[in-house]
Inverse folding.
């Protein structure tokens, strides 16, 4: 499979089952589903799309839906990058990296004051991917939003200017 063959599809209700199954798989592999997980995953339209958020899927012509990621609107101009997952048998193929870059490109079209994510130290590969793509660890984000999940012990904020300075 070549990641060049991926296309990125916005949310539609027919893909709700994929959103649930992809995310439930990785969450249950590493953690325990929390009430907020159930709410968001079982009714993504109500909890993510209707309040002004976005969901995208990484799709492959022959293999179907491989991964997903959401931007959950928290307030005007404030979004949480959340529920990013790739089906277990497709991990390691750079699907997550392509998906993240697509979501970041889409986020740049929005008037964002803040883009952040919450995760756990167990997700070391994901944390590395986030760092590589412009996210920095943030105690401010942890204090403000970290209590959203019991499993949260890492908070990061997207800082593309910082990323550009580090890369150059």
């Amino acid at each position: 499979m070549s990641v060049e063959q991926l296309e990125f599809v916005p949310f539609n209700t027919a893909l709700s089952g994929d959103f649930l199954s992809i995310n439930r798989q990785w969450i249950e592999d590493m953690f325990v589903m929390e009430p907020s997980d159930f709410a968001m995953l079982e009714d993504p339209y109500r909890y993510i799309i209707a309040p002004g958020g976005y969901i995208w899927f990484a799709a492959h012509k022959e293999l179907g839906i491989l991964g997903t990621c959401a931007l959950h609107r928290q307030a005007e101009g404030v979004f949480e990058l959340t529920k990013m997952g790739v089906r277990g048998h497709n991990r390691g193929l750079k699907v997550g990296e392509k998906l993240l870059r697509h979501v970041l490109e889409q986020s740049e079209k929005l008037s964002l004051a803040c883009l952040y994510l919450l995760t756990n130290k167990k997700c070391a590969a994901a944390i590395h991917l986030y760092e590589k793509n412009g996210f920095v660890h943030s105690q401010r984000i942890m204090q403000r939003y970290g209590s959203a999940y019991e499993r949260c012990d890492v908070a990061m904020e997207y800082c593309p200017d910082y990323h550009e300075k580090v890369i150059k």
Observations:
- The chain has seven helices and seven strands.
- The radius of gyration is 15 Å.
- The beta strands are 6-10, 54-60, 64-75, 78-86, 114-119, 135-137, 154-158.
